[in-house]
Write a structure and sequence with these properties.
single chain; about 450 residues; alpha/beta; Lyase, Ornithine Decarboxylase, Chain A, domain 1; TIM Barrel; nine-stranded mixed β-sheet; eight-stranded parallel beta barrel; 21 strands; binds pyridoxal-5'-phosphate
């Protein structure tokens, strides 16, 4: 069994997380249930932050809240001294509701609306990461009419292909995100930002992909961006205060994944930025990063009750659980792989191979193929590991299935931080027809 963070098997032979028995959690809060090991989130946050401190670099570690946003999660991020990356009005609204320090909020997105930009300006957030010319123009008009100046980063696409799944690859030039670094767009955006009185140009941002297991992509991105910055420094006498290298640090979903320790990514990035700065006689900029998955992914476990099963003779056995693509769409969307155990008897010898099916009306609603398990019984509780990132945040109400609750566990205590949706929640926004439309 893969063990994450504080996970262990307790005296009753049950899976325990954060000092709390998962069988008790399921009995108390029901299933499906997202459980977060808060000590592990804190440990990861500290590993990133402390490495920067040890290396003597001014830095911001911004939690990419798209991975999992809730008020309580943002409270933890704030307790750990993280900054915050938001990508929509909704994520910003959550951050404001969590009373996250506004000066540490960075606003991303490739199609921010005028309303979202106004919301960010009203809240006086730390910076806006401008993604394209449409946004640059709109933001400039808004600032002019408000007579304000806004701190911005320019998101650039450095033309690096990080080793990961195609669908979540965002660093190559043919991407919907950012200004192309090689095709002149980034330079044009830089000139526009420098010539305007509406912007305080803090620096550059890039994000080369997700679930990355090596540092070469980051090093190459630093080299490509620094080369341009050197060129622009000569041409425009501008050198940024901030270089933001995004997120994408890999985690271990299954035994086939071999992530690097968080600090190692930081060390390699810092080493290259320092080298490039030194070689070109420039100051070392502040380095910002935006981990999402690597802060919360391994900390999350989803508990499901096992229900029906179906044997296809000589082919496979399906075992269905009370959730599926409505609480974890990643297997259906990305063919993502997960590991799982029966939380009520995680050490029992595996005797069968089953495929874990969700309860949604889609053949593709499969959570895990070919999972070795002990002989299934009616009260089994399935714990699927590593569901903390892009699980709850991508959850949906397909088949009008209510989204599960979220519980934080730490030091033997469990606290409900997101309630289970009710059937009433599902129809809250529905409006009954008063007159026939025909
Ligand atoms: C701009 C940006 N920053 C950070 C992240 C977080 O990535 P990850 O969760 O893989 O660390 C993403 C993910 O899509 C992103 O687009």
């Amino acid at each position: 069994m893969i063990e994450y963070g504080t996970m262990k098997v307790n005296g009753k032979g049950h899976l325990e997380i954060g000092g709390v028995d998962t069988v008790d959690l399921a009995a108390r809060f029901g299933t499906p249930l997202y459980v977060y090991d808060i000590a592990l989130i804190r440990q990861r946050a500290r590993a990133f932050k402390e490495t920067f401190q040890t290396l003597g670099v001014t830095a911001q570690v911004a939690y990419a809240s798209k991975a999992f946003s809730s008020i309580a999660m943002l409270q933890i991020a704030n307790e750990e001294g993280l900054s915050l990356d938001v990508v929509s009005g909704g994520e910003l609204y959550t951050a404001l509701a969590a009373e996250f320090p506004v000066e540490k909020i960075h606003f991303h997105g490739n199609n921010k609306s005028r309303e979202e930009l106004e919301m960010a300006l009203d809240a006086n957030i730390g910076c806006i990461v401008v993604d394209n010319f449409y946004e640059l123009d709109m933001l400039e008009r808004l600032c002019r009419s408000r007579k304000c100046k806004v701190p911005v980063l320019l998101r650039v696409t450095p033309g690096i292909e990080a080793h990961t799944h195609d669908y979540i690859l965002t660093g190559q030039e043919d991407s919907k995100f950012g200004f192309g670094l090689q095709n002149g767009q980034a330079e044009a955006a830089l000139k526009q930002a420098l010539q305007s009185n509406s912007f305080e140009l803090l620096g550059m941002h890039c994000h080369i992909g997700s679930q990355i297991f090596e540092t070469t992509g980051f090093v190459l991105a630093v080299q490509k961006i620094m080369a341009k910055l050197v060129e622009w420094n000569h041409k425009y006498h501008y050198f940024p205060e901030v270089l933001n290298l995004g997120g994408g640090f890999g985690i271990r979903y299954t035994n086939e994944d071999h992530p690097l320790p968080p600090g190692y990514y930081v060390e390699e990035i810092v080493k290259e930025v320092k080298k490039q700065a030194r070689d070109n006689g420039l100051k070392v900029p502040e380095i910002w990063i935006e981990p999402g998955r690597s802060l919360v992914g391994e900390a999350g476990t989803t508990l499901y009750s096992v229900g029906s099963s179906k044997e296809v003779p000589n082919v496979r056995k399906y075992l269905a659980v009370d959730g599926g693509m409505s609480d974890n769409i990643r297997p259906a969307l990305y063919d993502a792989k997960y590991e799982a155990v029966f939380a009520n008897r995680p050490l029992e010898k595996c005797e069968e191979t089953v495929s874990i099916a969700g309860k949604c009306c889609e053949s593709g609603d499969m959570l895990i193929w070919d999972l070795p398990v002990p002989k299934p019984e009616s009260d089994d509780l399935l714990a699927v590991f590593c569901t903390g990132a892009y699980g709850y945040s991508m959850a949906n109400n397909y088949n009008r299935i209510p989204r599960p609750p979220v519980v934080f566990v730490e030091s033997g205590r469990a606290e409900l931080v997101v309630k289970r949706e009710t059937y009433a929640d599902l129809i809250r926004n529905d409006i009954r027809l008063r007159v026939s439309l025909t």
